[in-house]
Design goal:
Length: 542
């Protein structure tokens, strides 16, 4: 072939790439994504390095988080009888991955949903590997269904072309058959006929997509239903031949951000509260896949990462009178005890430790005079009910447990003592500034009755004044002893504060209030908000 002919062909290919990409952007309303990078010669793949190795096996894929599309022109030419038409279809498909599955964490969550379903089924290959194939088939269907519904009929043509290269397998018949139902288009050649079971599965799969397929809130339930129906027909080779793009599975992250995973799984509502009760269990399962198999540590990581969201002020209205910061800066000198040095605050304040100049003391007992009234910053004691009527915080998201994490974070400088109880003490830690020690207490679960730990409540009078936060969802079996202990503690130090949070109505509330406690009753949401507001008022520097 002459040099002029070669140049003419190359120019023609460049025109096809440019026009196809421009059409693709129009189809998706001009998303903010970089221009496609294409490869067709061996040198092109070598230049792309690791990405080139992946691209060699694909028609195209999009890399997150850059949303960079890579296309294999060589494979597109081999896959489709009309190179230009095939290029336009593949280019239109890939920008759809900007919206579905949107990012690597969503891919991870959806793949995990599919894997759990597949483990309940008898399939011909590894459930984790198969879950990635299901994820790709599901997201391909979502994207291409949206394109069909927005007047892009060439998508159906592309699957007709793919039918020529697919063996007459059960998976392809069910998959393509479902697309025929969804799109009302002919895909399978006449010689490919579906069995009764395959036809029923195709029809049931099609019903799943009778909705807005790009609605993110639906995908988790959608992929579970999809996996249930397609699992009996899964075959690894046929699955790989059926996939238009492996973008979803190729972007499952090798390393994860626990904070982002916790936030996404929790599905916080507009008020900032988690709505997915199964989130802590799902978080544990996901973390186990990344080598973090200890359920207690994983549960702590879930609540700890979710608690970071509430580092800012949460209360929407003031509780009590306005107050200036009760924290004054006390300088630590070399003659002071070492355990009084607040290293973290010293470094945050000045960036360097110079004894007597930039070193700061812990200030859990500092007072400020506010309009003639002395205000005392108390240490914090948290008593968390772990009886059978409370939820297991390692299985179901517990707002009470989450609130304890947030409150403990806010009170860390003052010192925290944590006690988990039912009929007895399930777990406890003495006064500490180490949050993890308190967190270990909060995630324990007893399942017993509800007997308030009076003995522990009255211990260590030298640590007064303090704020006692008591969380329960029922009445105390030892109400008389509890009320008497409250009276003793209030009499012992007038600045001791005792707040009881009752998740359900407490018949003994009046008696507890008469003894000297503040008693807050209501839903877990109300309790959560009030606990955070109490901690904000008591411990946050203004």
């Amino acid at each position: 072939m002459s040099e002029s002919k070669i140049k003419e062909q190359e120019k023609n290919v460049e025109n096809i790439i440019r026009e196809s990409w421009n059409e693709a952007l129009v189809s998706w309303n001009h998303p903010s994504i970089p221009r496609v990078i294409t490869a067709k010669e061996e040198v092109d793949f070598e230049v792309l390095g690791e990405i080139g190795l992946v691209l060699k096996q694909q028609l195209a894929f999009m890399k997150y988080p850059e949303f960079q599309t890579y296309a294999n022109l060589k494979n597109i030419r081999e896959k489709f009888s009309d190179f230009e038409k095939g290029t336009k279809v593949i280019f239109k498909h890939e920008p759809g991955h900007r919206y579905c599955p949107y990012d690597g964490i969503t891919s991870l969550i959806l793949a995990r949903k599919a894997e759990k379903k597949l483990k309940q089924k008898k399939i011909k290959y590894d459930a984790r590997t198969a879950s990635k194939d299901v994820l790709n088939l599901f997201t391909d269907t979502c994207i291409n269904t949206h394109l069909i519904r927005t007047n892009n009929p060439d998508i159906a043509w592309a699957y007709q072309e793919m039918s020529k290269n697919n063996n007459n397998t059960a998976l392809w018949r069910v998959y393509a058959g479902s697309l025929e139902q969804i799109w009302n288009a002919q895909i399978l050649p006449k010689e490919m006929t579906l069995s009764k079971e395959e036809k029923q599965a195709s029809e049931n799969i099609a019903k799943i997509f009778n909705r807005n397929v790009l609605e993110m809130q639906w995908w988790e339930q959608g992929i579970e239903n999809y996996t249930e129906l397609i699992a009996p027909f899964l075959e690894q080779k046929s699955a790989r031949q059926s996939i238009m793009s492996a973008t979803a599975s190729k972007n499952i992250p090798k390393e994860i951000s626990p904070e982002e995973i916790a936030r996404r799984l929790a599905k916080n509502n507009s008020s900032g509260l988690p709505t997915n009760k199964e989130a802590v269990k799902e978080f544990r399962e996901l973390m186990a896949g990344y080598g973090h198999k200890d359920p207690i540590k994983a549960s702590i990581a879930f609540y700890e990462n979710l608690a970071k969201k509430y580092d800012v002020s949460f209360a929407s209205q003031p509780f009590g009178r306005p107050r200036s910061s009760p924290f004054s800066i006390n300088t630590w000198s070399s003659s002071d005890p070492v355990d009084e040095l607040d290293v973290q605050q010293s470094i945050q304040s000045s960036g360097i430790l110079i004894p007597g100049i930039t070193t700061v003391k812990w200030n859990s007992r500092t007072t400020n005079q506010h309009q003639g009234v002395y205000e005392i910053i108390p240490a914090l004691d948290i008593y968390l009910d772990s009886s059978g009527s409370m939820v297991n915080p390692t299985e179901v998201v517990s707002l009470a447990t989450l609130a304890c994490f947030v409150v403990a974070k806010k009170a860390r400088k003052a010192g925290i003592r944590a006690i988990n109880y039912d009929d007895g003490i399930i777990a406890s830690c003495e006064r500490t500034h180490d949050l993890y020690k308190a967190y270990e207490v909060f995630v324990k679960y007893g399942r017993g009755g509800t007997t308030f730990p009076v003995k522990e409540f009255l211990e260590n009078p030298e640590e007064d004044p303090r704020l006692d936060i008591i969380v329960t969802d029922t009445y105390f079996n030892n109400i008389t002893e509890t009320c008497e202990a409250i009276r003793i503690k209030k009499k012992r130090n007038k600045n001791n504060m005792i707040t009881i949070y009752a998740i359900s109505p407490n018949a003994d509330a009046n008696e507890l209030v008469s003894a000297g406690a503040e008693c807050i009753q209501g839903t877990t949401t109300k309790i959560f908000r009030h606990m955070l507001a109490k901690a904000e008022k008591t411990y946050t520097r203004k």
